[in-house]
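[Q] Does anyone have a clean C-alpha cell version of this?
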Amino acid sequence: MTRKIIFLDVDGTLVDYHNRVPESAVRAIRQARKNGHLVFVSTGRSRAEMQDKLWEIGLDGMIGGNGSYVEHEEQVVMHQLIAFEDAVSVVDWLHERGLEFYLESNNGLFASDGFRERAHPVMNEYANRKGISSLEAQEEATVEFLDQMIYGADLYRDDLNKISFILNSYQDHLDSKEKIPNLVANTWGGRGETALFGDLGVKGITKAHAIDVLLEHLGADRQDTIAFGDAQIDIPMLDYCALGVAMGNGGAEILAMADMVTDDVEEDGLYNAFEKLGLIQSK
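[A] Here you go.
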C-alpha cells in the first residue's frame, strides 16, 4: 500500500468527550506508523495544550491553532501569529465589552483576571454538552482546563495563535467580526456545534492551507492524504484531502460532506476506520 499521510483532529476525533484517548486509537496509530504511514494531529489546540499523553502515542508532528502552526519531527515548518497591534485591539475590545478570555500561545495559555470564575460554569456546560453526564466528571474536566491557564501575565502579546473568549450572547461573536476585521472569527462549544466561546485568529489560515504547506515540506502528494474530523472547522481539511472521514459523533454538516463516516469517537471510530481503509493490516 502506498504510504498515506493521515491528519487527525484532536477533540472529538482522537480524544473523546472525557478527554481520554481510546486505547484502540493508540493501537491504530502505532500500527499505521509501523506500516510506514505518517500520522499528524490537526487541531485548534496550540502546542501548549498538547498533553504529553498525546505525544506519547507516537506522532510525526502537528498542525495547531486551526492551521497557524505546522511542525514535523519537532521542526517548525510554519508559524503565523496574530500581529501585535491586532492582539492589542482584541484585548482592549474584550475588556471594554466585559468579556473574559484567554490567549492561546505556544508558550502557554494566558487568561484575563476574571476568566476562572466566569469560565467555571461555562466549562461545566461544555463538558455536559460533550457527553460527560456525571457532575463529578464535569467538575474534574473543568478544573483540568482552568488549571492550564496562566493568570496575571501581560496580556499584550506578540506570540499568539488565537484568542478565545466566553460569549455572553451570540451577538458578541457577530460584533467581533465587525470590530476586528483583520482576524477571522469562529465559535466553539462541543457536540452539536453549540456556541459557548468565540475565537479570533489569523485570516486565511485553515487546516487545509497548513496541510498544503506540510505536503510541500514533505515532498508528498495530496492524493495520498486522509483526514479525520468531527466539526465544521474540519470541513476544509476533509474537503482538501483525497479522503475525508467524519466521526459518527460529528455535526450534521461534516457528516453530509464526508467521503466516509466512521463510528463515534467513543465506539472505536478511529480504529474501525483505519482497519476498513487497510492502514493497519499486518505486513
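[Q] Thanks! Anything notable?
[A] Residues 9 and 53 are 15 Å apart (CA to CA).
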